Amino acid sequence: MLNYRRPALPRVLTSAAIGLVLAVTGPAGLAHASATTAGSDGSQARAVCPPTPLWANTGGNDRELIQYDDTGDTLSTAPLVRDYGDIAFSPNGSTLYGVDFPGTAGSATLYTIDPITGAETAATPITGPLAAVTPTTAVNGLTSRADGMLIAGSFDSSQIFLIDPATGVSTLFPAAFPAGIVSAGDFITLDDGDILAFGTPDATSPSPVFRIRPDNSVIQIGTVPQTFGAAKSAGQVYAFASNGDINLLSSLPTTASTAALPVTTIEATGRGFYGATSTQDSGTCVTPAYTIAKKATPTVNVNEGDTVTYQVTVKNTGSTAASGDFTDDLSDVLDDATLVPGSVTSTTGTATVTGNTLAWTGTLAPGATAAVTYKVTVNTPDAGDRSLVNNAAPTAPGGSCTTTRACTVTIRVNKGEDCDKPGYGYGYGACMRKNQAATRH
């Protein structure tokens, strides 16, 4: 979000603004939220979604798009072409948006970004009141609503805006930050229907956190370490701090408070975060999904000296970009065979072998596949258990095997004669039956 190297704003937070409910003008309500709010509004809360990855963008001399799991481990990285004040997925997770930061007077641009490569795929000029913010547009809060509209904030205005991503036309959102507070974090649609908004009084102070109610009233519920981006996974909110920490917000009160909210740092990255997002920020339940399946050639029996070719296929079966990471345990293969040097290849992503484990990591677009291939040669003589058994297992959120047996391959090493050699007095079939009987015993 906000470039924390910027000088402090000449704004101060007045004590009267802190912790008060702000009545805001505007007849329009949050229709997407009021239909799904809970508790005091008498309507039903959203169901909690399964976990989904967290995405963040860094800037300055450290400009990357980074995908994290909900423990803070890095799943993927991609270079970015510019600084974005924030990023946001569309409600179905199929499109990633970014807004240039800080922009210039009268000018801002909404970009679509390929989450696999970090490349820009489209650019739409932003018009309307957001583009008129001076001295710069400085958009540094962006998220999708469930209806597809984008909520945006500016470092140079207390007003909150809506952007139509199809046209770039901005309008005023029917709520605003209190006087003296501007956007420096993000907007998250909570499971109870409220919108969580992160603000700032200047470029260094902790971030006040607000709930925007369906009636468009705004209430501060506490503060967190200065936050430049936020993302939601499985109902939990993660704040991306200016010092590079990824903080899990342990509680989100519903009553007015200016106290520090409890947070747990899941990872101290040291990165210069500008923004963050997930596919669940709009209140939708989009989750990654991918399958893996493996096969081998030959398929059942081999002889000493034979070469076996394995292939693991990964497919993104969901609607959003997803990591398809997996591991393949080769310990019960390499006691009977030797990995062929240079045989490990992948059509995309990165495959490595460490000890007896092959690991693949990569991010796939919806519908995309990756094929990982490697070869082993059965030892002569085979001093192992004469059975090559290995199992591939998904290691990223949303992964599964295509069937219950699709991830495991078992190949037996014949104990008998090589039936392909000429000179036997009995036929090939009889030779194979003799070998199979020997294998069983």
From TrEMBL:
It holds the Pfam family DUF7927. Residues 290-409 form the DUF7927 domain. Residues 1-33 form the signal peptide. Keywords: Signal. NCBIfam families: RrgB_K2N_iso_D2. This is DUF7927 domain-containing protein. It comes from Streptomyces graminearus.
